[in-house]
Amino acid sequence: MAVLRVLHRVCRVYAVAGLAVPVFGFATASALGVLGDAWVIASVALTGAAAAILALAVLPGQDAVLARLAAGDPPAVDAGTGVARLAMLTGVFNVLWAAVTVLMIVRPGSTTGV
Question: Which of 55, 61, 73, 97 has the most other CB atoms within 10 Å of its CB?
Answer without folding.
Answer: 61
